[in-house]
Amino acid sequence: MNIFVASLPFQLEEADIRQTFEEFGTVSSVKLILDKETGRKRGFGFVEMPEDEQGQEAIDKLNGAEFHGRAISVSKAEDKRENSGGRSFGRSDRSGSGGGFNRGEGGGGYNKGGYNKSGNSRGGNGGGRDRDSRGGNRW
User: Fold this and answer.
1) Quick one: 102 and 69 in the same domain?
2) DSSP for the chain?
3) What string of pLDDT tens digits covers the 139 residues of the chain?
4) Are 64 and 33 in a shared domain?
5) Do both 7 and 61 map to the same domain?
6) Nearest to 99 by CA among 88, 110, 85
7) Overall number of domains in the chain
8) Which domain CATH number covers 66?
9) pTM: predicted TM-score of the whole model, two decimal places
């Protein structure tokens, strides 16, 4: 069972988390998530426990429990899913389509797309939000 753990104190190490969860059974892995830019802990992570019953017991006992001065949140991790509905919120891959801030229609282009601070679209080949011939948003 993959378990999501949030509201973790930043000073904790993976060994601390492992020790706490091993009170309920075998822990196969612990992964604390780090900020990509700073390398600092983001205050959440994942614990993998091979036995679902042991994982559920850990969730039941640890969710809301105080851990080093903070009430932690513990729940079953959601499966990774692909973004549905044709929505795209990232940069274009420079292939001439996708990217920008669109919901499956138009959008993207060679440049970043998306919005600037004044709400106007930016980017090449239409990037950002598309408007239909009536002047409204097409979403």
Assistant:
1) no
2) -EEEEES--TT--HHHHHHHHHTSS---EEEEEE-TTT--EEEEEEEE-S-HHHHHHHHHHHTT-EETTEE-EEEEPPPP-PPPTTEE-S---SSSSS-SSEESSS---SS--SB-TTS-B-SSTT-S--B-TTSSB--
3) 999 999 999 999 999 999 999 999 999 999 999 999 999 999 999 999 999 999 999 999 999 999 889 999 999 999 876 554 544 444 444 444 444 444 444 444 444 455 444 454 444 444 444 444 445 444 4
4) yes
5) yes
6) 88
7) 2
8) 3.30.70.330
9) 0.58
- In single-letter form, the type of residue at position 52 comes to D
d(CA 19, CA 28): 12
